[in-house]
Amino acid sequence: MDKKIKFLYIYTVGLTIFSFIIFYILINTKKDYKEFQKNYQTEIVSLQKEVLVLKEILKDREKELEKTKKEKEEIETKLKNIEEKIKKANHYLERKGIKVELPEGGIYIPENSKKIHLYAGNLEKSITKLLKTIQDIPVGVPLYGKITSGFGVRRDPFTGKKAFHTGIDLRATFKQPVFATANGKVVYAGWGRGYGKMVKIKHKYGFTTLYAHMYYIKVKTGQYVKAGQIIGYAGSTGRSTGVHLHYEIRRYGKLIDPKKMLYLNSKNRI
Ligand SMILES: [Zn+2]
């Protein structure tokens, strides 16, 4: 073969092989790029999905937060209502001349809801104090019966003349239970002339109560009694025209109308 032809031949073959290599590299690079692009897009799509899920979670959390906030507000409102009631109860007691010292800090209005448990605790203390005070003062009825004779000037059932009635008379059935209207100490239990079988109890805040004409006395002088405890049973002993309970209240020795103490929210002052 001619040297020139041989060279041309080698040159052509070489160029062809070189072109193939270049072509191969180019094809592969394009393939890699496409794959990369494909992967990249898949990743972006999955990231977008993740973002959506996170957004949903965030939305849920926001809803929860709003719900919690609402619940907190509701609790605050309820506590404030309780506070109002405590104030009202205290006001009723003040009307009766009873000043209740509410616990340290008194009724506390929270500046933020974080202190809500502290607020609730204070309210609870106030309620407990009020309840205790109410049990210490003679409010309520000593016997369930209709008032047949009121406090003050009336016609005496024995003489027919005008006389001062020192308490109220409550119609009773024989042996009907008589209750102490407040916590206190029995300072007298026994016969008391016109009063018949009677019980006198000394309470806090200067109060004394007296229960008369009983058939049977269940307590003894010196004994401590609780509000609502049975102290005896109704009868007609002493200066009495029939079975009834004569009930008296004194404060610092001065007679007061028991009718005004039968109901806590009575507007009448004592
Ligand atoms: Zn009487």
UniProtKB/TrEMBL annotation:
Keywords carried by this UniProt record: Coiled coil, Hydrolase, Membrane, Signal, Transmembrane, Transmembrane helix
Domain of life of the native organism: Bacteria
InterPro entries given in the database record: Cell_wall_metabolism_enzyme (IPR050570), Dup_hybrid_motif (IPR011055), M23ase_b-sheet_dom (IPR016047), P-loop_NTPase (IPR027417)
Transmembrane residue ranges: 7-27
A single GO molecular function term of this UniProt record: metalloendopeptidase activity
Organism: Hydrogenothermus marinus
Name this protein carries in UniProt: Murein DD-endopeptidase MepM/ murein hydrolase activator NlpD
CDD domains tied to this protein: M23_peptidase
